[in-house]
Specification:
The chain has a 5-stranded mixed β-sheet, with helices on both faces. Strands 13-14-11-8-16 form a 5-stranded mixed β-sheet, with no helix packed on it. It has helices spanning 46-66, 69-75, 78-99, 102-108, 113-133, 135-144, 147-150, 160-184, 193-226, 270-282, 291-294, 314-329, 341-351, 367-379, 383-403, 408-420, 431-439; strands spanning 233-241, 251-261, 264-267, 335-339, 354-355, 361-362, 425-427, 454-462, 472-481, 486-495, 521-528, 534-539, 550-554, 557-566, 571-579, 588-592, 601-603. Helix 5 (113-133) packs antiparallel against helix 8. With 615 residues, the chain is of the alpha+beta class. The two termini are 38 Å apart. It is built from 17 helices and 17 strands.
């Protein structure tokens, strides 16, 4: 039986397909703005005024110095990192020493402005504690985690810096707790607005850093195990081909096994995976699945590996691949990861272009067209030549990514972009490791209830045996009737197939037997409603091929499948209405099959009454 997962995959708010805007990092130096109020205590004496200006100057200089840390890290300049740390510590030490003087105690006792002076003093002390006791450890970590030190010969990641971080994080957490204790007693109700705002921002820094460090401390041991710190791990990487669309991306005929051992990453050779691939092509998987689940999809769903992705529940897809590996290799996979060519193109934006054997290159701009269109037009039905080309691309791109010769933050940005567009999924059989996939919204699981998220979506499966979906674009919209507790979800599909002048491999193979043009897409549209809901209407009610209507339930989600014919140059829309169950509903998640282009999704403001964070 496939695993029952409670994972969450968060699409986000209405129409939000790009990564959420980053919150600007707020250093403790936000308290600098509060010094404008110190003019109000000038009566204490000119000496105090001069001291206030000195403290302000020291903190501003410290802030300016910290701004250079990022570039020093990128340059791998450990000496510069250490120098910045020393200079910042000297500046904050001087500022802290100044605010400990008797004039500051006297000014703190004055009516009205005294509370503000005291708040500035406490905030300066807290800032110094962080710089004195946490910054040196942080800079040390930056030094050992510089990009050049994270690489290992032959490809992979140096685990030593991350193991060092495990030892350092508890100490940094303790420092933040001390700083938090200092600022906890500030009476913000007595502060002037400009002081309260700055102190509040300092409190935010501490409040936000704590949970982040907790998360890092929790995840690091698991991440290290995933990288093979306690023994080698084998992961299946599946490449979903959006040109022959499936629910979670596309035809999954191409895959490779990646081995991680003590951070070193390598791709297993063809001889090591031949039995697995042959079994997937020939449909030799033997699994026991509920008939009501299997009946929701075409009969090839569990027979051929390329069709395991017909289900919108990625854990089920991963389980099928894992079972196939076990039956052909008598061992267990340690995880299944899925990406599509669009995600690959995003990664190439971080790695730079990769030269190919034929003298051309694959890069961020041409990757999608090269892999999903040009290759089929170039090789047509010459499968051996196409396999050789795809093999060369896979080998060289893997080597480039595994080499680590790219800027980490740029790669992270591209991966996050792919996750937001539902182009990367991951599943791990060990519960604590799969929790990472859930936490980072890459589990791709259908939820078992609506507590944390209310999932609704429409997915597509190619039924024409073609690569025509290279020319498919989609958009989604969701509207609600809060009084009736109904949600209507629509998917609009547009075909830009140019005509018959395409390779025989791109055009639909199944269509002639159905008296259909080979340029017509045949798409099974899967309407998936939230658990406990009831689908009360679907449009079209029957679909274009009535005998292929399929209705059922998958992991508690009501599911209707209707087959749509989409001729070249035409646009069609499918929609369904579902009545929500009683009780509170988690935030609305709109899910769909990722296409070659992005899929805009709009959530009408009418949904805000039913779902938190809906609009």
């Amino acid at each position: 039986m496939p695993p029952q997962s409670s994972g969450r995959f968060r699409q986000g708010r209405a129409g939000n397909h790009a990564p959420a805007p980053r919150r600007r990092r707020r250093w403790p130096w936000v308290l600098l703005g509060t010094f404008v109020v110190l003019g109000g205590v000038a009566a204490v004496g000119g000496v105090f005024g001069l001291q206030a200006l000195e403290v302000r100057g020291d903190l501003m200089a410290a802030k300016a110095q910290l701004g250079s840390l990022t570039q020093a890290y990128k340059d791998g300049d450990t000496a510069q990192l250490q120098q910045v740390g020393s200079e910042v510590l000297e500046l904050t030490t001087r500022a802290d020493t100044t605010v400990q003087g008797p004039l500051w105690d006297a000014a703190s006792a004055l009516p009205v402005v005294g509370a503000n002076v005291a708040a500035v003093k406490i905030a300066t002390e807290a800032t110094h504690v962080i710089v004195r006791d946490a910054l040196p450890s942080g800079i040390e970590l930056l030094g050992i985690m510089s990009p050049d030190k994270l690489k290992v010969e032959g490809g992979g990641i140096n685990l030593a810096p991350f193991q060092q971080a495990q030892q350092t994080l508890p100490q940094i957490k303790g420092v933040l707790a001390e700083a938090e204790t200092k600022i906890a007693d500030i009476d913000r109700a007595a502060l002037l607005p400009v002081v309260d705002e700055a102190v509040g921002q300092l409190i935010d820094v501490v409040d936000q850093a704590g949970p982040l460090l907790d998360t890092a401390e929790q995840l690091l041991p698991v991440a290290l195990r995933l990288a093979g710190s306690e023994g080698q791990r084998n992961y299946l990487v599946v490449f979903q081909n959006n040109a022959e669309i499936r629910a979670t991306g596309g035809n999954a005929a191409t895959s490779t096994i990646i081995r991680a051992d003590q951070g070193k990453i390598e791709k297993l050779g063809n001889d090591d995976v031949e039995d697995f691939h042959v079994a997937g092509v020939n449909g030799w998987l033997d699994v026991d699945m509920p008939q009501e689940l299997v009946a929701l999809y075409e009969g090839d769903f569990t027979k051929n590996a390329q069709n395991f992705t017909r289900t919108p529940d990625f854990p089920t897809t991963a389980w099928l691949f894992s079972e196939l590996w076990t039956q052909t290799n008598d061992s267990q996979l340690d995880g299944v990861i899925s990406i599509d060519p669009v995600a690959l193109s995003y990664m190439l934006a971080a790695t730079g272009p990769v030269p190919l054997e034929d003298g051309t290159e694959i890069n961020a701009d041409n990757a999608v067209k090269l892999l999903l269109s040009d290759a089929y037009e170039r090789f047509g039905t010459n499968g051996l030549a196409a396999d050789a080309f795809f093999g060369d691309v896979a080998e060289r791109v893997f080597d480039k990514i595994a080499s680590g010769s790219w800027e980490p933050t740029a790669m992270i940005d591209q991966v996050l972009r792919s996750v937001e567009e539902q182009r990367i999924y991951a599943w791990f059989p060990r519960e604590d490791e799969n929790a990472i996939a859930v936490q980072f919204n890459v589990d791709g699981a259908l939820t078992s209830d609506n507590t944390e998220a209310t999932q609704i979506g429409i997915y597509l499966n190619n039924a024409s045996y073609s690569k025509l979906e290279y020319y498919l674009s989609t958009s989604m919209s969701v509207t609600c009737d809060a009084a009736a507790r109904t949600v209507t979800t629509s998917l609009t599909m547009n075909s830009t197939v140019p005509g018959n002048d395409l390779s025989g491999y791109t055009l639909a193979w199944r269509n002639p037997s159905m008296d259909l043009p080979r340029t017509t897409m045949i798409l099974d549209a899967l309407s998936v409603a939230p658990p406990g809901s009831t689908i009360t209407a679907i449009d079209p009610a029957v679909g274009d091929i009535e005998r292929w209507n399929r209705d059922g339930v998958e992991k508690g989600h009501p599911l209707f499948s209707r087959t749509m014919l989409l001729p070249k140059g035409e646009t069609k829309t499918v929609s369904f209405t579902a009545t929500m169950p009683e009780g509170p509903l988690g935030p609305l998640e709109v899910r769909h099959s990722p296409t070659v282009t992005t899929t805009p999704a709009s959530i009408d403001p009418s949904c805000s009454a039913l779902f938190p964070e809906a609009g």
